[in-house]
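DATA SHEET
Item: assembly model
Revision: 1
Owner: S.N.
Input lines:
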Amino acid sequence: MLNMYLKRDKINIRKLKNVYDEIPIPAELQIMVTAMIPTGDVNTAPPCRSDRRRPFHAACMQYVVLTIAILVSAMIVLPNFSYTAYAFMKDMPILGPVTKVFTVRTYEDNTGDMSASIATPKITAGSEALNEELSQYSEKAISAYRADIAASGAKVKESLNLSYSVVTDNSRLFALRFDKTISMADTAKTVKIYNINKQTGSIISLKDLFKSGADYRTVIAGEIKRQMQHADKKSGRSSYFQNYVDSAMKGDVDFYIDARGKLVIVFDAGEVAPMSMGICTFTIPRNILQNMIAAGSCL
Amino acid sequence: MLDYFDKNKIEELILKEYESMYRLAYSYVRNKDDALDVVQESIYKALKNKDKLKNPVGIRSWLLTITVHTAIDSIRRRKREVPCEDTVREDFVDDIYEDTDLLKALDKLTEKEKTIITLRFFEDLKVKDIAAALPMEEKEVKNTLYGAIKKLRKIMN
């Protein structure tokens, strides 16, 4: 009898389950649970009701700030007093918990009808190779701009802007996003994201997050197409280029991991949707990737 | 492999299932902070009461049922509290998951129906485990399930 109902009603149940499975998991949850479990201290009562009216993450923040203060103090004092501590600490993550980025160079130009503003960032405590890679990305944009001036004699209206922003900065990952906008007859927006493993200081690619041989590209492409269908259905228009997703996923995919620990795939304007829709981002639910995530992955 | 009937594995189970506990809590309270509170209180209750757990109740269904009951208590408590303007939290603004409209269909069910639908279909618990954890007769769980599915059909179609 139950099976009969399920056949008739499975679409409704599946719809509800999809929404349920995609309820976002906040980053504080893991901190809270792991803080409760290792001690197993069941004699410690939970916070009283009046305390619990305050958001849990606000309560957590107190401990986080206190812990950071203790850690920073320990990092300064210990290596100066103990060789063992110094020997241990020199193997600590290359990029610290607080990573800063600053602009080392801004290229500004106005030649004829053409203009450019290109920022070159530098990551504090980043390796020379890493900062060189960032610098080269900006240099390429400058070279391409100069080539355009030479080719057109600066008689074509063109405006180039390259800026950067930090999209992820947590204990394991640091992600720097470049946004390049070239305005000519049309406006082309492209994105380049550098994800850096703080432990090693190296740049990580999408494949580094997954087990060797895992077909993560197909799974992610399927999810993106599902989200496109959902969005198109909601808007009543057919905006996205679903047929382009597979080929876009085969190339060098830009991504970052958001504050909730979810994978976000980023496409340039025009790559999987009309240029007018700008940069397109898709957040991939963790549960569909669960079996493919590599051990020790930053995801 | 985690033994779902070994109550000494409760800590291990919590570490494995806390995301399910959160989703379950969120499906009731519909905001992040209250859902975090519900998970926190549920873990506390589970650790404190694990020795009272009697076989053959599976610990997963037991843990998820604690979460459901704690979430329902939290909603009842919230209804009793009279909100004062100063205490309205600004972080609620970005705290609301936009797709909860569909989940609101579940609110039209009774508490018992919603709990059984959620545990059976979203958390994949077996009818006999739900019956043991609530506790109820298996037949009653099945009948409630049929009624809830019929109601959902009317609500969603």
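QC remark: Chain A touches chain B at residues 1-2, 5-6, 8-9, 12-13, 15-17, 19-26, 28-30, 32-34, 36-37, 40, 42, 45-46, 49, 52-53, 55-57 (CB under 8 Å).
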